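Thread: Newbie trying to understand structure tokens

Hi all, I'm a second-year student working on a class project, and my supervisor (Dr. K.) asked me to get a predicted structure for one chain before our next meeting. I've only ever worked with sequences, so writing a 3D structure as a token string is new to me. If someone could post the tokens and maybe explain what I'm looking at, I'd be very grateful. Here's the chain:
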Amino acid sequence: MATTSDIKKGLCIKYNHDIYKIIEFLHVKPGKGPAFVRTKLKSVTTGKVIDNTFSAGHKIEDVRVETHKFQYLYNEGETYHFMNTEDYNQISLEKSSLDAPDLMKEGEVVTVLINTEDQLPLSVEMPSHVILEVTHTEPGVKGNTATNATKPATVETGAKVNVPLFINEGDKIKIETDKGTYTERMK
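---
Reply by user tm_fold:
Sure, no problem. This is what the structure looks like when written as tokens:
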């Protein structure tokens, strides 16, 4: 059993007869009253995100997980197929258990969290940044710039990202996977 002081991003816990992954948390110590932890939990079975507040010192039941590197192979509709990079076993996961499936290109290496009790995959963690090529965007008009002006662009995986006006088709861009936002242009 863990307590609220053990809460960190990515921790998997049992809560309300389901397994949730903590995606955000904030320790709050108000001037009046007891401390508490405000969390955002994502169900690993349904993908539903809920907000929850734990009082300080509250006991939480954590789930023991192992992480393994898997390579993304392909998808068939809502089912995504991955291969373990160590023993070449393949697994399939539903789209709802993936954090950012629209930013994943074939061959991408991701981290899969596996429950040690029943050896079932819980969720997929993407790398913090991915580099993708812009396949479609409107040309930027010279002189049409205000501070931080952006335009929509489609990348090779089909995802839509807002990019600065100087980005053209064929450019490779770095995208932050947590927020799905443009970071920088790559050479």
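A couple of things are worth pointing out once you decode it. DSSP finds no helices and 16 strands in the chain. The mean pLDDT is 86. Feel free to ask follow-ups in this thread.
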